[in-house]
Amino acid sequence: MVIHASGTDRGDIPTEYSVQGMREHELPVIGTYVDFRIMPGFRYRVRLNPTDEYLFGGVALPLLGIGMGYGKRLTFQGESLNQNRNFFWSDSRQEGYAFSVESVSSGECFELTDASGEPCGSVTVTDASEPQRELDCHILDDGGVEKHVQVSVEANVSGSVTRLVGQAVVVKPQGQLLAQCVRIEGLQGEGLQGCSLRPL
Q1: Is 12 helix (H, G, I), strand (E, B) or coil?
Q2: Residues 48-67: tens digit of each pLDDT
Q3: Which of 4, 6, 54, 126 is the most buried (most CB within 10 A)?
Q4: Closest Cα partner for 132 from 100, 155, 105, 164?
Q5: What is the mean pLDDT of residues 148-158?
Q6: How confident is the model at residue 14 (pLDDT cuts 50, 70, 90)?
Q7: Does the pLDDT value for residue 9 go beyond 80?
Q8: pLDDT band at 131, cuts 50/70/90?
Q9: Could you count the other beta carbons within 10 Å of the beta carbon of residue 24?
């Protein structure tokens, strides 16, 4: 898949790129360009485009900051604030980088609620390896950021393993460092119409 990227789309340096090797759910970082949907506070997996190799051992980490200028430093959460080595520059790789947002991870637990909001079960995500795709993003009245992300995960639902498909609502409140999934809505699956998930 080829993505055409232009810095003028976000009022940045007027450079243009045709990025080959991208996948449908991925967002490009190349040269001076960082896709406008990539935001600090949200978790991303980073692939070395066009290979199958990932940075940080393939683990999705929270993005802490995006630097200014031509080569933008992208800094991710590390084990130590004083010696954080989880960073790179946008222009470090000629073919660029492919970012994948991750809103839900394996091992996370949720409460299943019915259409009236009443609890009706518990859910533990057992496999979240399927690609998650950002659907939209908007700024809240208080200045926070809300993203909607399409997810398809395997989960244990009150003792029964099934696949859940829905939209994760991920919010980064104004003044807070990290975003959190506040609910998963629009669930698809037998007996799940009108149900939603809320983190425990």
Answers
A1: coil
A2: 999 999 999 999 999 999 99
A3: 54
A4: 100
A5: 95
A6: confident
A7: no
A8: very high
A9: 8
Tokens at 127, concatenated: 């496999």
Residues in Cβ contact with 164 at an 8 Å cutoff, skipping those fewer than 6 apart: 123, 151, 152, 153, 154, 155, 157, 184, 187, 188, 189, 192, 197
Partners of 122 in beta bridges: 111
Give the integer Cα–Cα distance in Å for 109 and 123: 6
The secondary structure of residue 42, as a DSSP letter, is S
* CA–CA gap between residue 195 and residue 189 (Å, rounded): 10
The residue assigned the tokens 């949720």 is 110
Query: Residue 94 CB: number of other CB atoms within 10 A?
Result: 8
Lowest mean pLDDT segment, chosen from 38-42, 80-84, 145-149: 80-84
**Residue 42 and residue 192: Cα distance in Å, rounded?**
28
Residues contacting 26, CB < 8 A, separation 6+: 47, 98, 99, 100
The yes-or-no verdict on residue 200 having pLDDT over 80 is yes
Please tell me whether residue 63 adopts helix, strand or coil conformation.
strand
| Strands of 27-30's sheet in order across | 33-34, 27-30, 97-101, 43-48, 61-66, 73-76, 87-89
Mark 157-195 as b/e (b = at least 16 C-beta within 10 Å): beeeeeebebbbbbbbbeeeeebebebbebbeeeebeeb
